[in-house]
Amino acid sequence: MTQEHQGGLRGWAAARKGVWSRLRLTSLRLRLVVVFGLVALTAAVSASGIAYWLNREAVLTRAQDAVLRDFEQEMQNRAGSLPEHPTQDELQHTAGQMANSSQRFSVLLVAENADGETVYGSSGGLGGFSLTDVPESLRKAVTKEQKVTSANKYPYHLYWQRTVEDDTPYLVAGTRLIGGGPTGYMLKSLEPEAKDLNSLAWSLGIATGLALIGSALLAQALATTVLKPVHRLGVAARRLGEGKLDTRLRVSGTDELADLSRTFNSAAEALEKRVADMAGREAASRRFVADMSHELRTPLTAITAVTEVLEEELESEGGGIDPMIEPAVRLVVSETRRLNDLVENLMEVTRFDAGTARLVLDDVDVADQITACIDARAWLDAVELDAERGIHARLDPRRLDVILANLIGNALKHGGSPVRVSVTAADDEVVIAVRDHGPGIPEDVLPHVFDRFYKASASRPRSEGSGLGLSIALENAHIHGGEITAANSPEGGAVFTLRLPQDASTLAELDSEGSGDAEGSAGDEGKGKDAKGQA
Fold first, then answer.
1. pLDDT tens digits, 407-466
2. Region (Disordered): which ranges (predicted)?
3. Which of 35, 120, 291, 467 has a C-alpha 20 to 30 A away from that of 476?
4. Does residue 337 fall inside a structural domain?
């Protein structure tokens, strides 16, 4: 099969799929077409039925009246000229003359001859129209003599009836001459009229079908006209949901859809303005935090140098620190270190918020990385490591160290020893679980453990942690394309589970400037001073 042919088949399949998607059972387009078609079908069938009924009655009545008038006139002129007791030959001859009238009907004359016998004369001979072809009820009505009154001037009247024999409609009529004479019956086939009515029915049926097809096409055109603005509105709403806040609809006309488009444009404009204001305020806030952090680094550097000197004096034997002010000096040293950690954390947070944080990837052995993190912070005696060597991943070693330091340090501080760290590899990802043996995380705290500046106990607003460690760990996991979850173990204690892809090379590498700015937070966060997560 040629490539051109394959492309044609794909195009046909796509077009067919597009048609079915537009005409799916739940689509408004299909419902409009169906409703419009049903209304048109009902109207067409009703109109055709009424037209057929009116035409049928008009055709049959016109034909019937013409035949009955002719028969009545023939009875008066020809049958009325017969003697009171005619012979069979006379009846036969008269019946033949009557049948030759303009309406061409069959005639049967019944009378008594001079001997008192009943004689018959039929226009069709002995095998033609006979008395058995006349319904019994009609014969009784014709031969019944009625009382003459002011309202009824004649004892006998003309009666008629429509019958069907072998799917052919007939008109049967009969009357008796007043003052004595033969009784006459007439049989007229209505087959020509029935054929005309059948032709009319077929014509009306075809017209109804054409009306239905036309109404469906018209409904499709109207649905397209009506739904096109709705489709444009849906596309614009999706674009707006994707963040393209400059999306606007073209407004034309003065109908309800135009009003809807204007309302959408007004809402989109207001949303764009509000989002722009919020983005401006957020950017200003980030700039303020970043500028404040940078401005604080210079005095903090000097203060940190002084506190290091004071700390050396405190640790030296026979130091020159007055015992009365020693507690205050220790407090200054501790709070200075805490303030330095907070500034570094704030700078890291601003990099995540500004989107400037990037990865510097390297192939690392996860077990070696965890061992180095624990050894650097002197946690070897308090942490159990269950990790086989040889589980490699392409990650950012510094950011992985930040994550591990926060999770393990948080477990050591707020959980209970021993803290167990296990590593598994499955489905192209590395799973690191950090479990402690403490009281666990309260259920009302679980949803907030990764929130910034959140601390489980409101009674301890001052602590060594900044409330940013776990949130920074989560951001570092996200930038790798991973995730961190917190839960309580059924055996007791809390479990933090870190999932990272074994290859994060699809993410952008950290540029040199970003790498330089990011330095310095790993070691400080690695001390496990976050007070979040557990009671």
1. 998 888 887 778 899 998 887 889 999 998 888 888 888 888 888 777 655 444 444 556
2. 506-535
3. 291
4. yes
